[in-house]
Amino acid sequence: MKQIKFNYLLIVLSLLIVFQSCNKEKLARAHIATAGTGLSVKLTAGLYVLNHGGSKTSASLTFYEFNSKKLYPDLYDSVNNSSMAMRGVDMEIYGSKLYCTTDTDLYVVSAQTGQLIAKDVSISWGGVGRVAFYKNNLFFNTYIIDSTALSINENNHIPYGYFPRGSESSTFVVNNKLYQVVEESSYGGYDSLVVINLPNLALIKKLPLPGHVFSATADNYGNLYFKGLLDSLADPYDDNLASFISVINYTADTIKSNLGAKSNKSQIFAQGDFVYYPTIDNKIAVYNAKTQTAVRDNFITDGTLLTSPSAIAGNSVTGEIFITDVKDRVSNGMLYAFDNTGKLEYSFVTGINPERIVLLK
Fold this sequence. Notes:
This protein is mainly beta. It is built from 2 helices and 29 strands. The chain has a 5-stranded mixed sheet with strand order 1-4-3-2-29. The longest helix is centred in the first third of the chain and has 25 residues, at 2-26. The chain starts with a helix and ends with a strand.
């Protein structure tokens, strides 16, 4: 009888060990690829993270490859033997190219190799800001770039930019229209949304916004969401600030509603039927885009705690949601990958202040 009990105990212990091993494998850290001089890579599907950097550190690009689970902590530096400029701002993939902006520079990089294709340094009008694309044209601030020729024509610009916010602005293209947030005053004040017809650049209308916009997204139901702070001159990371989300119908170009949102300078992201955004208590709120109602206070369901969530992106095929955590803003951050039920799949270390996520498909 004792022998039977002992064997049973061994079986239970073995199952526990196997179970724990599976969990460790699920949440295991990525294999860090060796960063060599002039690293040559051929990247497959994965995640790009643009790190803003710190007060004394430059922007950087982190890449995580899904299949190999390889992590390239600073891909741009490893491939090109040089650092990016200070303060990474925005990043998008268009065609085979990855476009990255800092406060002063525009970088055009091969999305599959990380190699620099072109760089525009110290742009005369100051501050590159957010980027958007339409039929081989790149839009940022008031300027337009031919994404094939990669040339800036300073005479070819959007004529409706009033004190463009630069690195803090939001530029969005949807429904053959360009939506650009502009500032109504050179010092503080509220923002407005300029709606421009593409491709003739004719002004359609200008809509008032209740404050200063930091992020924008579009859903599948004809809505644009602009998230920002009511006080444009205050510290954007102050958790006591009043914030808002303006919902714009991008068919009629009318303001549907202005929602109260307990949030700060962080991204808003729409995928499927839902809109996700970080709150001041470091949770991820979920809003139903179809019914225009709040769903729940926190998308995360497995108890994973975030210190200071910032960027959000997703995979529309798998339903996964990716969230960066800037932590203390002076040391390396983290990226967390969740399944569509809010359970953590894996995480990895990023650079300092990870502020943008883009999928390489």
